[in-house]
């Protein structure tokens, strides 16, 4: 992923975490509101929680779609590079394997 894409992904992830915190806060509000009464205040809190859950689910679906697309694009790009430069890919894989072997051997 590029720098801009990584930043967008991080922003989306941060927003998703913030949305889930809002859902938790709304659930806590519902618990406090329904502790003593089951009237209009509880109904309003339930409606707010339902709205927050809908928003969180929608944003989660968007982030999931973005991550899936980015993973698919990265796999396709890697496949293309390996097919265009097979010996270079073999050399890089051998070098990485060698370095990992050296690191493991040290332990």
Q: Care to give the gist of this entry?
A:
With 107 residues, this protein is mainly α.
Q: Could you state the order of secondary-structure elements as H and E?
A: HHH
By DSSP (H or I, 4+ residues per run), the number of helices equals 3
Shape: elongated
Distance between the termini: 32 Å
Q: Please state roughly what percent of the residues sit in beta strands, choosing from under 5%, 5-15%, 15-25%, 25-35%, 35-45% or over 45%.
A: under 5%
How confident is the prediction overall: mean pLDDT?
79
Oligomer: single chain
The low-confidence runs, each spanning 5 or more residues with pLDDT under 50, are none
Strand tally, please? 0
CATH class: Mainly Alpha
Structural class assignment: mainly alpha
Number of domains: 1
The CATH architecture designation is Up-down Bundle
Jot down its keywords:
92% helix, 107 residues, 3 helices, Methane Monooxygenase Hydroxylase, Chain G, domain 1, mainly alpha
Write structural notes for this entry:
With 107 residues, this protein is mainly α. The chain has a single domain, classed as Methane Monooxygenase Hydroxylase, Chain G, domain 1. Helices cover 92% and strands 0% of the residues. It contains three helices and no strands. Helix 1 runs antiparallel to helix 2 and helix 2 crosses helix 3. The radius of gyration is 24 Å and the shape is elongated. The mean pLDDT is 79.
């Amino acid at each position: 992923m590029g720098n801009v894409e990584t930043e967008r992904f991080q922003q989306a992830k941060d927003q998703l975490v913030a949305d889930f915190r809002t859902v938790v806060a709304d659930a806590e509000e519902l618990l406090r509101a329904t502790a003593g009464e089951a009237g209009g205040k509880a109904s309003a809190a339930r409606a707010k929680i339902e709205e927050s859950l809908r928003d969180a689910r929608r944003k989660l679906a968007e982030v999931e779609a973005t991550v899936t697309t980015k993973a698919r694009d990265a796999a396709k790009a890697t496949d293309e590079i390996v097919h265009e430069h097979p010996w270079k890919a073999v050399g890089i894989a051998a070098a990485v394997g060698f370095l990992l072997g050296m690191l493991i051997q040290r332990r």
